[in-house]
Design brief:
13 strands; 2 domains; three-stranded antiparallel sheet; ten-stranded mixed sheet; 24% helix
Length: 317
Amino acid sequence: MLTAMARKFGFGRGRGEADQTPLFRSRFGGLWIDRSDAHQVLARKLRDGEIGQALAEPLARYISSGYAVFKQAVAHDVIDAYLDFFEQAWSAPPRGIYAHSGGEVHPLSRELYHRVAKVSDLHYYFDRAPELIFAPAIRSFLEAIYERSPVVFQTMSMRKGSEEPLHIDTGPLTLTEPMSLTASWIALEDVRPGAGALQFVPGSHQLPEVLNNGTSKAHNGDYGAYHKVLQATLEKCAAGNLPTEHFMAKKGDVLIWAADLMHGGAPIENTELTRQSLVCHYMPLGVMPTFYDFSKVNYVPYSGGGWRLDRIDTGAP
């Protein structure tokens, strides 16, 4: 089994000549899955029993393509409970909950219900949040790549497709360890054609790194500079003939992607359709966000495993 998988995903590939191949693509380093010899590290972890066989193929795909898919990873009864909670939140939003819509930040209200809107951080108020955010397949995968406990630092709930252009998360969501950023996209319903599916560019996480002004992963509020980074990366995608794929998920399916993977939302062709989903952004324990003042933020453990931050009022207007 391991031999066939090694051929398929390149476990046997080395770093090349040690004096020519950098250990990490990014000047900011990364996780073990970001190393140039990551497939060899995975093979060793399998051999030594650090990682089970069930995670071998998702990890190998993540290393090579920048994403992994877990079918039916989240129980439908948990999703249904969250959808009920989400529906109620539009009319009676919890404290400090806001939505991004039309390039602006708004207090959550029923007026945004039929618009393209991303609702931030409802997980603080949903009592079964760990069952969504850290469903067993998600938590096991994150623990494998982090070699530490995972922490969720942000969630975004959506009724509609986001229609976001292809972008990279490390620009706006900067961390003390930038390359440790990971995200999951959880289908809260079946994705139908025309609803604006999640789209992504496999392999784009391995393109030569483009930095803001040549120095930083963060755009630091300079969206012009961030746009240049994205345009340069898109040009590299085109030059490398990297195709854009769409995640036509079923309810309960999960896609997890790497820090620098290009992704976004396809255009909505049928405005009558919803595409209900939950996006979660993660980091390993010991890391903190740097896109706001985290000096008074603490880690809070979930009883079933995994952690969250205790920052609830995130500055909603």
